[in-house]
Amino acid sequence: MSGFNIRGVAPTDVPALASMSDALGRFHDETTKADPVALHRDLFAAPPWVWGLIAEAGAQPIGYALMLPTAQVQHARRGIDLHHLYVAPYWRGKGVGRALMTNVETHARTLHCSYVTIGTDPQNISAQVAYESLGYMRRAPGPRFSKQL
């Protein structure tokens, strides 16, 4: 399915990101309160602390991915940790998550990363199946997943 696009996060996306972050927390039965000021700082500082992608249908945000840098210094390898991945309920199962993951991998390659990692709640079996279908390997402790680029 199409009808959506993926792009880098812009400052005007911060309120929607905060709202979707809180929705992700509710999905995991967590009480969260994303801070738009902190999100703006972390996404748009020089250098950024977090990188973000947003999925949108028309002008409506429908999902996002937030990434953090990581490294395996002992192996001289850079990586990206996919810290958050969220897709609005109506859009789940329609390719948005897969498109976000593909764009995360592309972003990682532009930063000369050799791997991407992601974790998920132990009860989120559908996410675990999705990550494995995209070539991510289960790691312990977990569930954590990693993909070599």
Determine the fraction of residues in helical runs and give it as a percent range.
25-40%
Query: Strand order across the biggest sheet?
Result: 1-2-3-4-5-7-6
What distance separates the N and C termini? 26 Å
Task: Kindly give the count of domains.
Answer: 1
Specify the CATH architecture: 3-Layer(aba) Sandwich
Helix count, per DSSP? 4
Structure described in brief:
It holds the Pfam family Acetyltransf_1. The chain has 149 residues and is of the alpha+beta class.
Question: Could you characterize what this model shows?
Answer:
By secondary structure, this protein is of the alpha+beta class. 32% of the residues lie in helices and 32% in strands. The chain is built from 4 helices and 7 strands, in the order E-H-H-E-E-E-H-E-H-E-E. It has helices spanning 14-27, 36-44, 96-110, 125-133, and strands at residues 5-8, 51-57, 60-72, 77-87, 115-119, 137-139, 144-148. It has a 7-stranded mixed beta sheet with strand order 1-2-3-4-5-7-6. A hairpin with a 4-residue loop joins strand 3 (60-72) and strand 4. The longest helix is centred in the C-terminal third of the chain and has 15 residues, at 96-110. It starts with a strand and ends with a strand. Keywords: Acyltransferase, Transferase. Pfam families: Acetyltransf_1 (PF00583). Residues 4-149 form the N-acetyltransferase domain.
